[in-house]
Specification:
With 192 residues, this protein is of the alpha/beta class. It contains 5 helices and 10 strands; from the N terminus they run H-H-H-H-E-E-E-E-E-E-E-E-E-E-H. It is globular and about 50 Å long.
């Protein structure tokens, strides 16, 4: 008995990342005018409840292939690196501090994802992460190493808000996760 690989692939379980990729593709198709809002709502509901690749495939087959987003890579090097202001959050981010620090500020970022994987390497400079109120930060898979983790966010986030999953190592510089401080909140109010 031979098994048709295309049929067995369709029965494979879909991951949250698979569903998110389809959701993002559908939203981009609606923004381009390839599908209307009513069709978007219908397809989004089907995508979010899909259990297998076979259930996901028909939702985008008339829209072209789903292209996975490239991970965002930040390297602190000697002088440090910052990502702040208005930017679109990809599903995967890799931050390597090096001698200089890395700061990731999600406060004004556009994030349509349920979950974002942030692989950190604190090295010598350390990593600072600023998340909006309501976000959930999970650091179960993070190696604290010498620098350790300082998570200054309060408990579970708001339902439906993004989950930031930290992996990697804190290194010597450590990793700090916090909400915007007073100065940053004032700057945000002034920008409105």
């Amino acid at each position: 008995m031979t098994v048709d690989p295309s049929r067995s692939a369709g029965r494979m379980r879909a991951s949250d990342a698979d569903r998110e990729a389809v959701v993002e593709h559908l939203r981009e198709a609606a923004a381009d005018g390839r599908i209307d809002m009513e069709e978007l709502d219908t397809r989004l509901g089907q995508a979010l409840s899909a259990r297998t690749h076979g259930e996901l495939a028909p939702l985008t087959e008339d829209l072209g292939p789903v292209v996975p987003a490239e991970p965002l890579v930040l390297k602190g090097g000697m002088h440090g690196a910052t990502r702040s202001g208005r930017w679109k959050v990809p599903p995967v981010i890799r931050a390597h501090a090096g001698m200089g620090s890395v700061k990731l500020d999600f406060t004004l970022a556009e994030c349509r994802l349920r979950e974002v994987e942030l692989e950190v390497h604190g090295d010598m400079g350390g990593i600072s992460i600023v998340v909006p109120q309501g976000w959930t930060v999970r650091a179960d898979e993070l190696e604290t190493a010498m620098g350790g983790l300082k998570n200054r966010t309060e408990g579970p986030g708001t339902p439906g808000s993004p989950v930031l999953r930290l992996t990697g190592s804190c290194g010597m510089g450590g990793v700090v996760v916090r909400h915007p401080n007073f100065r940053e909140r004032r700057k945000l109010r002034d920008a409105e």
